[in-house]
Amino acid sequence: MAVFKPFKAIRPLPEYAAQIASPPYDVMDSDEARILAEKQPLSYIHVEKAEIDLPPETDLYDDSVYAKAKENLDSYTTRGLMKQDAKPMFYVYQQTMHGRPQVGLVGLASIDDYMEDRIKKHELTRADKEADRIRHVDTCNAHASPVFFTYRHQDVIDSVVNKVREKAPEYDFVSDDGIGHTLWLMDDPADIATIEEAFGKLPHLYVADGHHRTASAVRVGLMRREKYPDYTGTEEFNYIMTVIFPDNQLKIYDYNRVVQDLHGHSKDEFMALVEKSFTITPAPAGEPYRPQQLHEFGMYIDGKWYILNARQGTWNEGNVVDNLDVSIMQNNLLHPILGIGDPRRDQRIDFVGGIRGLEELERRVDSGRDVVAFSMYPTSMDELIGIADAGEIMPPKSTWFEPKLRSGLFIHPLY
After folding, report:
1. Residue 368 above 90 pLDDT?
2. Residue 355 has what pLDDT?
3. Structure confidence by residue, pLDDT tens digits, 24-46
4. Cα 156 vs. chain centroid, distance in angstroms?
5. Is residue 395 part of a domain?
6. Which of 52, 104, 228, 265 could form a disulfide with 270 if both were Cys (CB 3.0 to 4.6 A apart)?
7. Residue 235 and residue 264 in one domain
8. Is residue 388 situated within a structural domain?
9. For residue 214, what are the CA distances in angstroms to 132, 196, 344?
10. With 90 as the cut, is the pLDDT of residue 366 above it?
């Protein structure tokens, strides 16, 4: 059964929380991070992307970058901007986007649960990205930002969480992207025990987003076990800091595709090839077409939107991976017609998160940067969990979660 336990977080004093909280490291480049840091000097981006405090020519993976991250992290405590809680607790973290809240718990999951497949995954990881986060965690001696898990919702957990939300919050602010962030402390021993017991009855937890950070946290834990062979299993390095949300509160957005060319085909040739696997219907004029159901796609080309519906028999309905819309698109159009065999590495394809709107697809095509765009029906939480339960891997760029977790509101020290 799954382990989920409280911990003593290092976190901002309430008066500094809004100024410190930052976007995660992987949603902006170094130049964007420097601009953010100029506007918000206390921003935790100094830890997430410490290269901004070094000469611009510094290699992103130089030892000095990780050393600077450690220095910057420690400075929040020495300057009196953060402190560690005196006793272990859970933290109730609510994000509100467009009036819709999602409420999760901040706590620790077990690296043994990950290795023994009680923490389910649905994505492959890349060694270079893992190596970067391993060095960051190991050098900082802390999980400097959380990973994002989910679980099949439980009424008993909801009940305790909602009771805690009736108290005055520790933090309550709106970040510059319009997302509300509210944090409550769950420090009552009875509530903590109820939460631990409820999670202890769950067979699995699921990585929703942050596969690289999860794998890296596990790897650092194993490195520490090798370094300290007399470990007992209770040391902090045996755990992963996560924000875990119930599956019925999460929203997955569409993750759309744009392609630079038609792989040598004329438009007429391309349309004829597409029609072998999809019915093609002109979309109503006036606005971008957003798919309304599974196995339906929007296509924007030459200033017009079309509705594509996958023809029966063009995919294996009995296979949980083949049945995904991203697989149908890849296996019936992107690969055989447009020659994109490896969407992870092919430079001719790009991916646009649904949060940016379908107008971004039109802009990309109308500008000439791309030739054709495809709007996707969002992957569901049931599909994600079904893939993970089956031990399968989703195709790349299958899910786009919003809102993103803020970094800097809770840190898990490994000492």
Report:
1. yes
2. 85
3. 888 888 999 999 999 999 999 99
4. 26
5. no
6. 265
7. no
8. no
9. 12, 21, 20
10. yes
